[in-house]
Design goal:
Number of helices: 16
Oligomer: single chain
Strand content: 15-25%
Helix content: 25-40%
Structural class: alpha+beta
Length: 501
């Protein structure tokens, strides 16, 4: 009997790979360590009756090409309009940022600048999206694919091509100040260049992260990540995939011919000649495999692959909606009214601390999904940026309380009744994320989004196109091209490489 392709990890990428491989007639066994599917996109309860849709829950970057190829509409996927993004200014007033417009106190020139910025993103998005939906160039292979990508950029027109080349190595702060007079607008947009990474807006290359994120963003999925997880699971099982939860893999076995099987924590041993791993590269090569059997250069590169988590997650159960000073109900808000405020928050993490005024990406998912909590209550999901993984003095109940108080105080500057509304809270430090989800360093992207850790260098040039030096072992997680977030692209691309053989 043909042994199945074993997929390690039942997050968005693992489910995407399982659905594609099964649809193409391959026998697939997906193994998820936790009792629930979804990984960082899995719904969880943090207080009686209160749930969060996931650690990550921005589904707007899930690739439409995957949705179409897997016919996910048949399994319930629908797209909806995103909420406005609120961004506080120094005087306390709020900007409301829509996809194509700004409401609030900005100059007419900045309104025109924003329209020009959106026009630029719209023009280059198809090309950038294709780069992220195709394997990265193989640095040891033919230069023809790289030449084709260069030609596609050239076909954008001289002005847009030059702008992409100019922006790539820049820092997000410089790009935003080059574009806009409003610090609040620039800071709100710049957040996408630093989220989850050991970077501030003045770090080189963050403009590239911002560019990619802006180009990939579309419409979010109705029902959030849980709806996407369920649809992918249904598509995979409909195509014949076998899915097992509460089945952590403890070791991947090799012989002279490459992959020969896996062992589970319960002692079960499964034969397999192909493994698709969605865990982070350090977990894969340094924990699940016998390092003595791996190439020395591969081990060196993986050990030096940077994965310093800087994200903490705070969940709040509220007795009512989250409201601004003016009484507006919040669905999405980002703190940090200037680019320098974002940089100062990052400074703290460099010294193994967290900022007194951390940078917050605040969403209220219960605004669009009331099933997350009891009637008339709300759930607030907060990503706090630049929180040190290895906090000076260590993480304990006291330091978690201090972090929660700093986060609440920062948000309360814009939502003054917050403290009186809190029913319960959950604080997840980078170390908590590491333990709960087996994320090295607590890094939500499985490794830095930095210029030297993207494209064919993610996680190492030896694994440039999802295929590793170990025969039968493929990468399908956020630690490979094109990176983290809810896109499905790493699983999609990894599965395509498996199909090629």
């Amino acid at each position: 009997m043909t042994t199945p392709i074993v997929i390690i990890g039942g997050g968005i990428n693992g489910l995407t790979a399982a659905a594609l491989l099964s649809k193409r007639g391959r026998k697939v066994l997906l193994l998820e360590a936790r009792k629930t599917l979804g990984g960082l996109a899995s719904r969880s309860s943090f207080h009686d009756g209160f749930h969060v849709p996931g650690i990550l829950h921005d589904t707007s970057r899930f690739r439409p090409v995957i949705e179409k190829a897997l016919n996910l509409e048949k399994f319930g996927v629908k797209r909806i309009q995103p909420p406005s993004l609120l961004a506080p200014q120094l005087d306390g007033a709020l900007l409301s940022i829509e996809r194509d417009a700004i409401n609030g106190q900005v100059t007419e020139e900045d309104r025109e600048n924003f329209a020009a910025f959106r026009g630029f993103i719209d023009r280059i998005s198809p090309t950038i999206s294709k780069i992220c939906e195709q394997p990265a160039p193989n640095p040891e292979g033919s230069l023809f694919p790289l030449a084709l990508k260069a030609l596609k950029l050239r076909l954008l027109g001289r002005r847009d091509m030059v702008e992409i080349l100019r922006v790539g190595p820049m820092c997000a702060g410089d790009w935003m100040r080059d574009r806009f007079q409003s610090e609040a607008l620039g800071a709100a947009l710049a957040y996408d260049g630093i989220e989850g990474c050991f970077l501030g807006p003045w770090s080189a290359g963050t403009a590239f992260n911002l560019l990619i994120s802006s180009c990939l963003r579309g419409l979010p999925v109705e029902g959030g990540p849980q709806a996407l997880v369920e649809s992918l699971r249904a598509a995979a099982e409909d195509a014949g995939a076998e899915i097992r939860t509460d089945a952590p893999v403890s070791q991947i076995h090799l012989n002279d011919n490459g992959i020969c099987g896996v062992s589970l924590s319960n002692g079960d041993k499964l034969e397999a000649d192909t493994v698709a791993a969605t865990c982070d590269p350090k977990q894969l090569f340094l924990r699940l495999m016998d390092q003595s059997l791996l190439p020395t250069r591969l081990l060196h590169d993986v050990k030096h692959f940077r994965a310093r988590g800087t994200s903490a997650k705070i969940h709040l159960a509220l007795d009512g909606p989250l409201k601004t000073t003016s009484g507006e109900e919040v669905a999405h808000l980002r703190t940090g009214s200037t680019l320098d405020a974002l940089e100062r928050a990052f400074d703290a993490s460099k010294y193994h601390l967290f900022a007194e005024n951390p940078v917050l990406d605040v969403t209220v998912p219960s605004m669009s999904n009331p099933s997350l909590c009891p009637e008339d209550k709300h759930v607030v999901s907060i990503m706090a940026h630049a929180v040190s993984y290895d906090l000076k003095g260590g993480w304990d109940d006291s330091s978690r309380t201090s972090l929660a108080e700093a986060v609440i105080s920062t948000l309360e500057a814009h939502c003054p009744n917050l403290s009186s509304q809190i029913i319960a809270r959950e604080v997840l430090t980078p170390q908590d994320l590491e333990q709960r989800f087996l994320l090295t360093g607590g890094h939500i992207h499985h490794g830095e989004h930095a210029l030297d850790q993207l494209l064919f260098m993610r996680p190492t040039a030896q694994c440039a196109q999802h295929k590793t030096p170990v025969k039968g072992l493929y990468l399908c997680g956020s630690g490979c091209h094109p990176g983290g977030g809810i896109t499905g692209a790493p699983g999609w691309l990894g599965a395509q490489q498996i199909l090629k053989g």
